[in-house]
Amino acid sequence: MEEKNMQEILQKAEVLIEALPYIQRFNRKIIVVKYGGSAMVDETLKQHVIQDVTLLKLVGFKPIIVHGGGKEISRWVEKSGKEPVFVNGLRKTDAETMEIAEMVLNKVNKSLVKLVQELGVNAVGISGKDGGLLTVEKKYANGEDIGFVGEITEVRPKILYDLLEKDFLPIVCPVGMDAKFDSYNINADDAACAIARAVKAEKLAFLTDIEGVYKNPDDKDTLISELPVADARELIESGYIGGGMLPKLNNCIDAIENGVSRVHILDGRIAHCLLLEIFTNRGIGTAIIGEKERKFYHE
Predict the structure, then answer these.
(1) What are the pLDDT digits (tens) for 122-169?
(2) Torsions phi, psi of 56, nearest 5?
(3) Which of 3, 60, 146, 206 has the fewest beta carbons under 10 Å from its own?
(4) In a 3-state reduction of DSSP, which class is residue 260?
(5) pLDDT tens across 203-259, in order?
(6) Which residues of the chain form beta strands (DSSP E)?
(7) pLDDT tens digit string along 158-172?
């Protein structure tokens, strides 16, 4: 065998050995993946994400996918002749828009089920309405009524535990019901965070369109690989964090403080970002960790 070919084979073996301690640590542990951004639009990236999550399932993890569908919802709202309206980053959702959103989210949900099934893993697509998973109340944007947008008040994860116990991969779309059984659209980040807290997930991973958290957003060399909660609070208080990262980082802190061991912010535009972050020593995104959580880096 040529030396070059032997080197390639040995490199593949080294990658598998590097992954071994992570497979051992997270075997039979619940991992929640919030799936959104460009990885939901680009068909190649979509395949990579589903391959990653399916591999996690096959090596013994218990993944749960929570997905959004914002761009697709906006497209269908425009098709109906309406103009998408956002208030403080939240979609203004009247009754007609809610009907469109639920239709689109269920369509996206079943397309993801299909992709997982094609890879030989049994998946079940549900919404937050199924089994009373997500109960909500009306959410306001700085006091303004924005329609059927829900704030999660309760998570009843029994349906998720039942599916995981029967060896299914749950795929959840963020629609819930209030006390009157009216349907509400829920921010997918909020839904993923609430579900991760409720099931005491070992990991929560956000797939985004950014590389991670920067100490200085204007300097790409300041990407933070591991960020303890105390340091994350300091970044927020110092004013470094703004825009869409602010609520996401607050969600990360909230998840850590409510039992999730580690939260990852990953660039979903990078092929197989989940595997690179979870199974390699240095990872590629930002991992937010609790104060008692030990670092994983092996320098």
Answers:
(1) 999 999 999 999 999 999 888 889 999 999 999 999 999 999 999 999
(2) -55, -45
(3) 3
(4) coil
(5) 899 988 888 888 777 777 778 888 888 888 888 887 777 667 777 888 888 889 888
(6) 30-35, 62-67, 86-87, 90-91, 123-127, 134-141, 144-155, 169-173, 175-177, 183-185, 203-208, 226-228, 262-267, 286-289
(7) 999 999 999 999 999
pLDDT tens column, 184-194: 999 999 999 99
Nearest to 121 by CA among 56, 25, 201: 56
Q: What is the DSSP letter of 270?
A: S
Q: Return all residues near 170 (Cβ < 8 A) that are at least 6 apart.
A: 64, 65, 123, 124, 126, 159, 160, 163, 164
Go through 232-269 and write b for each residue having 16 or more CB atoms within 10 A of its CB, e for each that does not.
beebbeeebbeeebebbbbbbbbbbeeebbbbbbbbbb
Say what angle helices 95-118 and 43-58 make with each other, to 10 degrees: 60
Query: Which helix (H) or strand (E) covers residue 3, if one does?
Result: helix 3-26
Q: How many CA atoms lie within 13 A of 250 on its CB side?
A: 10
pTM above 0.85, yes or no: yes
Q: How far apart are CA 288 and CA 11, in angstroms?
A: 29
Which of 273, 229, 277 is closest to 253 using CA atoms?
229
- Contact between 57 and 112 under an 8 Å Cβ cutoff? The reply is no
CA angle 262, 174, 249 (to 5 degrees): 35
pLDDT tens figures, 82-102: 888 888 778 889 899 999 999
Query: Please, which residues have CB within 8 angstroms of residue 90's CB and are 6 or more apart in sequence?
Result: 139, 141, 146, 149, 187
